[in-house]
Design brief:
Structural class: alpha/beta
Mean pLDDT: 89
Distance between the termini: 48 Å
CATH superfamily of the largest domain: Vaccinia Virus protein VP39
Helix content: 25-40%
Strand order of the largest sheet: 3-2-1-4-5-7-6
CATH class of the largest domain: Alpha Beta
Number of domains: 2
Radius of gyration: 20 Å
Low-confidence stretches: none
Strand content: 15-25%
CATH topology of the largest domain: Rossmann fold
Shape: globular
Order of helices and strands: HEHEHHHHHEHEHEHEEH
Amino acid sequence: MSWVGGKKALREEIVKRFPLGYKRYIEVFGGAAWVLFYKNPGKDFEVYNDFNHLLANLYRCVQEHPNELIESLRYVINSRENFEWARDSLAQNVPASPVQKASWFYQVIRFSYASGLLSYGSQPHDMWSDFPLILQANRRLKDVLVENQDFEQLIRHYDREDSLFYCDPPYHATEGYYQNIGKDGFTEKDHIRLRDRLLSMEGKFLLSYNDDAFVRDLYDAPSIHIQSITRLNNIKQRYDPNCQFEEVFIANYDMNERGLYVPKQFNLFD
């Protein structure tokens, strides 16, 4: 499922940088859960969290009521009128069951322009083709705890020495893109509040951000590791196909830890 700031393009690079030996995995700004769905379930205790209550409700319904959600989507119409009705019903908090709200929200995501939730995308979409994906997501989420908390409260709640927190907050100076249905804005004070919480934790964190001076200055601290990475800029590809978007990974551990433990293949000349 597409989502503003989704990590489809970087999920492999992110998982490669996970540390060894963690027992709790907490995705703090879950969004479309690209990283959660990409990583192996393993034996770790997994938590998905997002402050957007509509998004958290959608994942709970996928987890607990997948067949009811599919039935509520079976005969929806991909039209501007239907999109605007679902969007406005959510914005006005029209009384409805959790499954019905999840259905409206899923329609708004699928039928909006660039999954921005605000304007109709005017693109064909076969909703029935999503039903097998919903059932697959249901199986993957079977043992995942779905939360809807502020990041500071969530981190404090699950912080242990064996915890790994993956954080993908709204990028600095792009926070306006996230001010959509059911989503409060992320401010500069929140970036600082996140930094303070992460630098004082017991567990480990991996953080993805846009590469700018504010972010680098924010995490210029002892024992903090920063790695640069680039990816194609999806927004500018249309008129500049090779345009790259510069990002950083930030962690309080050695992000090359897994590479250090890859067994070496010997040959006759070693």
